[in-house]
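Hello,

I think I submitted the cytidine-5'-monophosphate job twice by accident. Can you confirm which output corresponds to this input? Input:
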Amino acid sequence: MPKIVLGVCGSIAAYRAADLARDLMRAGCEVRVCLTDSAQKFVTPILFETLTGNPCLIDTFDEPERGRMAHLDWARQADLLLIAPASANTINKLANGIGEDMLTTIALAFEGPMMLAPAMNPAMYQHPETQASLNNLVEHGATLIEPTEGDVVAGESGQGKLAGNAEIVGTALALLNRSNLLAGKRVLITSGPTQEPIDSVRFLSNRSSGKMGSALAQAALLMGAEVKVIAGPSMAIYPRNAHVIEVRTAEEMHKAALAELSSCDLAIGAAAVADYRPSNPQEGKIRRSDDAISLDLVPNPDIIAELAKSGKRTVGFAAEPSTDLTVAIAKIQRKGLYAIAHNDVSNRGIGFESDKNQITLIRADGVQETSPLASKLLVALWLLERIAE
Ligand code: C5P
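Support: Only one job matched these inputs. Its output is below.
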């Protein structure tokens, strides 16, 4: 049974760590909790002791087993150190090697994988010191689950909400069971929508959120790959240890993808590239009149089909409005793909904009398999395990 030390810091989101501990236990892990001083203002050790059946550490000199220094004992026994919620204070201490409470002392003694799920006020999150510390920790191998955007306490909103438990648990399990199938491989991912200008202020686009591309990037990193993402405009937050190239139009995405092709081993087209663009985008603004107007559209380059011509393993996505696989199967042939992931976007619970997905992977050799309906990260890991072999 994998052993997780769950570090809980002083944040309103500390209450969510109770559910998180339970979810990790339901997923088959043994959980031991360590609270910082400020965490105890929000939650109590007895809550976690009762939930987990294990002692909860709070003070650096706590010694649940007499004669065994707990910070070393717990660090040696743990398979994963997960800090959720991680506060700015603890993040900045960790990045500077400071061990001045039980949690940061365990972190110093721990040699395995560390995961951080921050939660804090958006200004504290964006503070240059916090950002520099996070970059430093990620560079040294920590896995970061970026906080999400939304309403936070005190009537503010921004990036600072603790990520969803499903994502945190999914990532923890992925870290514990990680296959290094992509170690040493370079993965290129196109992600998000494209915007095709009609005039200087208007464009044609689609509902792609970029979340699947972001999940694929995180999954590929967890599996040991070096990752480049060519990202169309979206609110998606990409892992900071992926190299992200931002583009706007399909033509820009095409150019960037071809430029990166020689330095990749595997290409995945998760972008919802606009098939057509206005042939003649206007300078300035098209003015309103009573006359009907029409847009002349010309086809965009088929990016994934061109990447596939290189002979490198190339995998596409087929966002289809039904469960019928016929069109997806035809795309494998037409685009010269190794495989395609069929995504039924008529099902509102999965696909575009949703945090969940379910795909059917169809390989060029005809083999088909359907993923579980799960978080996009878990689906991404499922997919990569099948195409990395
Ligand atoms: O042709 P269709 O858009 O249905 O195919 C979807 C797949 O092809 C996706 O993997 C998408 O990223 C890719 N694609 C592309 N360039 C286009 C259109 C689609 O790379 N112009």
